[in-house]
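[Discussion] Sanity-checking designs against the backbone

I'm trying to build intuition for which residues belong where. Below is a structure token string of 297 positions. I'd appreciate it if someone posts a full sequence so I can compare it with mine line by line.
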């Protein structure tokens, strides 16, 4: 008796969406295209990585059979995300770019997937905030929840680390962060794809292991002088003074920094209203989590 209305509701939620204007000045179509670019990247990663790292390699590295099987499932779900976004965007959909991923063994595949899922989840969550249309918000909310489950499983069950970084997930509203993180792996994108309204920042690399209350050295491919490292975690940010040299910077991490966070090297000491022109390089990923069997709070 209730089947027909339920099916009708499902078909409406997946209809090609009307364009709604976001408070940020970006309409829903441009925001969804940005999210689509991140999903295309993830979909390509799982497809290529799993084609190059076999079940026997996972077995030889000491992983149970189900670990690779779960990663295969994550890849299949990423393909579902692509299908949902294509239905929303219709003719405004993006074609995938050509990507070049690093050569990976099973452990580095899982580590790359964890970093990718976590930072792009934070970027998608930040973009969700600016969506206006109900259809778009419903579909992206569903995708974001699924991405969070992927990230948590990779961190805990696969890599034996903490599945969370506190009581709040990190929200990254700067579209340039996601674009900059995937850019080093992009060879070429179709000329027919619309431009993403984002800046590609120079890359930054950690030169030392991140631990709480330690001196962290960062190298970056920019000639601009850096003054600070801004760290995003949860719904807040922390600005740390950076000692800058030629293409490198050193910063002391606070003792209370835990879990996963994201940083940008900036040329300002003002912590609010950071703009693209303030960014020297980034993003970087800091992971100060604990093992999954730790009793630490």
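Best answer:
Here's mine. Compare freely.
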């Amino acid at each position: 008796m209730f089947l027909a209305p339920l099916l009708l509701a499902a078909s409406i939620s997946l209809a090609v969406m009307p364009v709604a204007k976001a408070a940020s000045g970006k309409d829903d179509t441009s925001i969804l295209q940005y999210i689509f670019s991140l999903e295309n990247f993830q979909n390509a990663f799982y497809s290529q990585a799993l084609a190059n790292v076999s079940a026997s390699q996972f077995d030889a590295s000491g992983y149970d059979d189900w670990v690779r099987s779960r990663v295969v499932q994550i890849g299949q779900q990423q393909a579902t995300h692509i299908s949902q976004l294509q239905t929303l965007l219709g003719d405004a959909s993006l074609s995938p770019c050509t990507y070049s991923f690093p050569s990976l063994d099973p452990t580095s595949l899982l580590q790359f997937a964890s970093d990718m899922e976590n930072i792009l989840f934070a970027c998608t969550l930040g973009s969700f905030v600016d969506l206006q249309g109900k259809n778009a918000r419903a579909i992206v909310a569903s995708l974001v929840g699924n991405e969070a489950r992927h990230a948590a499983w990779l961190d805990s069950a696969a890599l034996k680390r903490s599945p969370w970084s506190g009581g709040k997930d990190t929200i990254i509203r700067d579209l340039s962060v996601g674009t900059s993180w995937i850019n080093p792996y992009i060879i070429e994108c179709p000329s027919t794809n619309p431009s993403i309204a984002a800046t590609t920042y120079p890359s930054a690399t950690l030169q030392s292991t991140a631990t709480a209350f330690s001196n962290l050295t960062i190298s970056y491919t920019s000639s601009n002088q850096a003054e600070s490292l801004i760290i995003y975690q949860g719904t807040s940010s922390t600005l740390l003074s950076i000692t800058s040299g030629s293409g490198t910077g050193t910063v002391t991490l606070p003792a209370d920094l835990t879990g996963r966070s994201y940083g940008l090297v900036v040329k300002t000491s003002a912590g609010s209203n950071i703009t693209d022109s303030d960014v020297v390089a980034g993003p970087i990923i800091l992971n100060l989590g604990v093992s999954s069997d730790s009793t630490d709070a």
